[in-house]
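Continuing from the previous page...

OK, I double-checked the sequence for Site-specific integrase against my notes and this is the correct one:
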Amino acid sequence: MSQKTVHQAEAQIESWIALQRDLGKAPNTVIAYGRGVRDFAAFCCMESFDLLEARKGTIAAYLHHLRSRPPRGGNAGDAGHACATSPIMANASLRHRLTIIRLFYDHLVEEGLRGTNPVPRGLRGAIDGSRHQGARGLVPVHRSLPWIPSEEQWLTILEAARSEPIRNRLMLAFAYDCALRREELCALETSDIDPAQKLITIRAETTKTKAGRVVPYSAVTGELLTVYLRERRALSRSRGPLFLSTSPRNLTMPITKWTWSKVVRALGVRAGEPKLSTHTMRHLCLTDLARVGWDIHEIARFAGHRSVQTTLLYIHLSARDLSAKFAATAAELHEARLASIMEVPQ
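Thanks. Re-ran it with the corrected sequence; updated structure tokens here:
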């Protein structure tokens, strides 16, 4: 591959990254896009592939490279990263890398620099797989069940949380009560809270789907909020970010999602539940709403999901929940339908 070709490829990469930034993509998204496409470009350079002329075989070779190279570790709180002890890159990480490359080549096609995209686009189809059979992406989707703490495990987590500062306890309460993503939680401002109605406004610009919503919170969380606001006023009387740092180095600075991840990780270790993550409270809240009989569309609106299919991935009813529901609603019907199987032939 000539030096001129390398420079052309680098120019297209920088142009695409700048475009994502100008389109208003979140800074972390732009960083992830840049990291992913540059890693692919480095692989193409190493293997003497022309990045701008890549074919499906190039993409397959890159996937093989990703699966075989030693993992680089990552943030344990990020679901898409491979664990430091994992022998290969996680399935979700592979799919994430492919998505970045596909978006880059979509751009090249739109600019008229290529005729086709070398990364095939998988089609989802119906839940039962009746549509688009065989139209799969290069990496299959693995749907792992989320970890949901049992009642005993949750009480242990709450007991460990009692020693946390009031700010952290309030953040934990809001995360569960309102099923907040960590970005939404850390971006809350004082003006987003309506204590009189016990409502929180989740602003569109802070959400993953760019759709705002208003959700209620419980009386217990309201009591924690009252105590915390007194503490916050001692730090700062200005309106703005709700959750402020108390550390001397970052005094009164807004809490970042990375800080919150560290708080939750430490809490999980202290409670003896290392699987606890910032997303656990969201999963648990949505599952609890399903347990008490909320309609799936109501849960989707509460969670801020565009599709109920996404909501279904979040809700994880335990075997005990399903057994109790089965016993209460369907056991008699199933027994009647299968009764004849117990008859002994004469």
